[in-house]
Design a protein that fits this description.
This protein has 274 residues and is of the alpha/beta class. It is 42% helix and 15% strand. A hairpin with a 5-residue loop joins β6 and β7. α1 packs parallel to α3. The chain is globular.
């Protein structure tokens, strides 16, 4: 969403509703007869630091930022890299792991009816890196600097600056933004643990919140998160009605960049896009 849209949205919700920290949300420090809202941001984009943080500070709005620590391996998330090169390359087909992917009308590369992006979600990072090699020249030809607002991630210094701001909280979001339920369980656990350790080193504080990449989770990984010290788990949707009863787990309402602010507010009040 645009900077202008975001500021209009923040101004509206702080004027008409009760915007609180995630900590207060968990403790149910709500106002009656109004919408109580806690804001979260996923992935750790530089645009959060450049555009969102100053607006949040201007309106004194708390927020939690869930950081993918892949910045130590690459300056972008694989999904953004793939989106950009797929859209802008002139190539109509590419080969990945001996499979021929062909571009469709939506400018997605498809093999056997499945997009490369969906295939990539389940790839371990050592295989996922092949995508960077396949599209290396396409990336350079963009040029990538033109689209930095879209893909660039925060560095360690910027993450630390946000962590030091009493208005904000830092949480973990995995190491490489893999779909943790689709890669081998031990590798998924390592992704979760690595992201926690890396952020604790950067922020010089305990990291006790974890948001699952894509919102995909299972009970085994949720249990592991608790074992290593995560006290709160953020999802997108609950897998079961029973999961919704777990006080440590919260689902979230995701902003839609393709609708007007009036429509966004209507859906927010309704609690659904349907």
């Amino acid at each position: 969403i645009s900077k202008v849209f975001f500021e209009e949205f923040i101004k509206h919700i702080t004027t008409h509703y009760n915007v609180i920290s995630l900590d207060d949300f968990y403790q149910k420090k709500f106002k009656k007869d109004t919408l109580n809202i806690a804001l979260t941001f996923d992935d750790g984009y530089l645009n959060n630091y450049t555009y969102a943080v100053p607006i949040l500070e201007k309106y004194n709005v708390p927020a939690c930022f869930y950081i993918t620590t892949v910045h130590e391996k690459a300056p972008y998330l694989w999904a953004d890299f793939l989106d950009l090169v797929s859209y802008h390359t002139n190539r109509e087909e590419v080969v990945l792991e001996r499979n021929l992917y062909q571009k469709n009308a939506k400018k997605e590369f498809i093999w056997n009816g499945v997009s490369m992006k969906n295939v990539a979600k389940a790839l371990p990072y050592n295989v996922l890196k092949l995508i960077y090699e396949v599209f290396e020249d396409d990336w350079k030809a963009l040029p990538p600097e033109k689209f930095e607002d879209y893909w660039k991630l925060m560095n360690a210094e910027q993450i630390k600056e946000i962590a030091d701001n009493p208005l904000f909280t830092i949480g973990a979001h995995g190491e490489t933004h893999a779909s943790l339920i689709d890669i081998p369980e031990e590798e998924a656990k390592q992704e979760i643990l690595n992201s926690k350790k890396q952020l604790e080193t950067i922020c010089e504080q305990q990291i006790t919140e974890f948001a699952f990449p894509f919102g995909y989770y299972n009970k085994e990984l949720a249990t592991y998160c608790k074992e290593i010290g995560f006290e709160r788990l953020l999802l997108v949707d609950y897998n079961t009605k029973q999961d919704a009863k777990n006080e440590a787990w919260k689902n979230r309402f995701v902003m839609n960049p393709y609708i007007s602010m009036e429509q966004q507010l209507a859906c927010l009040l309704k609690g659904s896009y349907f």
